Amino acid sequence: DGHTEYQRTFGALFAVYWLLRLDIDGRCGLAFGYDESWRILTSAASGEGEERRAAFFEKMDWGLLAEVTELALGSSVERIEAMLCLTAFHDVMKVTPLIPSVTEEHAPYNGFSAGDAIHDHDLALAYVLEYYPHLIPSFAMLPEALRDVVLFTQTKMSFNHGWFVQAEATPGAMLSSLKQVLSGASGADLSFYFFHWLTDISGAEGRPLAGAEKLTVKFPLAVLVSFLWSIPYLNRLAEHSETDVLENYLEARFHQSFPDEPTPEGETAIATMRLAVMAQAGASRVVEAFEQSSSSVRSILGEEMALTGIEGQSFLRSQFRGGPAFLVYYGPALLQRCGSASEMRRALTALAAVYLAGRQLWPMEEARWGETATLEISGLKALDIGDAIGGSAAGEPRVWVLSRQNEREARLELLSAIDINDLVGAGAAFVCVDLTRSGTPPATPEGSQYGEAVMASQTKGVPQGPPHRGAAPTKAGSSAHYDGGPQRQEVVFSLLGGRAALVALPVARR
Questions:
Q1: Are 430 and 403 in contact (CB under 8 A)?
Q2: Is residue 485 within 8 Å of 469, Cβ to Cβ?
Q3: In this structure, are residues 197 and 215 in contact, taking their beta carbons and an 8 Å threshold?
Q4: 152-202: per-residue pLDDT in tens?
Q5: CA distances from 363 to 125, 250, 334, 366 (A)
Q6: Alpha helices, H only, 235-294
């Protein structure tokens, strides 16, 4: 309601004040807030969240907050004024009677046609600030350069910060849109945006006297620190390529986890660093497991995790070309669940099998260097790690199937024989995946860089060459591929010793 939004706005304004006073009393203000007499508290009051507030105060890396504040505002009084103005009016378009409609003169506007009401409160505010600035006097009085900075904060950046923090995606998928938005802006403007995001979250509980309650009590400290830690690297995006920014971030995160180790080099360097960041607290386990994995697993992950999804860009330490690159959605969640080295090795084998299955659906082509396809594996994170990888979670026999949803997305699901036959009947493109081994890679098409170790590990007797329309699946235990085709195929399988055996029976279309 209106009262809650009013309180949230004041909570955000208080956060601006506290962040500017970190070297005085701002730390106490953020962590503990004020008492009923408006005296700042120096310790957590008894009650809900007491322990978490105390832990936040003691364990927070206050230097990171000070760095973000410095990058965003510096010592500029005008930038501080602009931040206070933005904080005061940034949610005003949540008031329904104020929602603007696009005029003929300004149509189309960000996908809205003439006469359309803009219900997205950020876009609605951007529209008013851009075309009717006089309606927000505090904005209109700002210097033009700072009006541009405020407008920048209302831009739809299509940026998933979690992907970057966890090294989940390719540079193309997570940074190209942000770099395009940054055209004409600066790293300081991006920090301004993040500072505003931080203060907005701080006041989100609508209790200004309770400090930055959302951050201190409701937000995991490790996640907050990771987000803050990444901001200086994102600031470099305006002047550096997406791939350079990510590689520098990976190197820094790797040395944070392994301060005495040299930076990885060679074809598996990027995979090693990405895996360490993806696993977070399990960084040591995943690096050890990766070193102990088969040459097939290391070669597959080494190449696939080093593809950039940006034409003409390669990582300095692991230089591969071609595409599409793959974003394995929920890959970090798979690794973070592994509590032992053996579980981590199984997870890496499963991850390599998923990449390999994706490559059967999207063969490597140099012409697709600038593309990224998403392989969504959320089905894996919903199960016990042993059951998930073994495929034994369900009562009836099932196998993991990676099915293409469209030209850019595929999903991994645990399916029954009936489900698989439905896919065949629909002419869907899919691959049946054995997550207990990395399988047999397709023959190396031009532009692919799979190493000799991978090719040497191929199972004897398995047909070589990329999968084709109507191809029969490989022998039992390998991944089997079906890509529609002029023939209809019935797929029958049984579980033999916990391993899926698949047979494709060509049948004329009815």
A1: yes
A2: yes
A3: no
A4: 988 877 788 889 999 999 999 999 989 988 887 888 899 999 999 999 999
A5: 44, 27, 25, 10
A6: 242-257, 269-279, 283-292
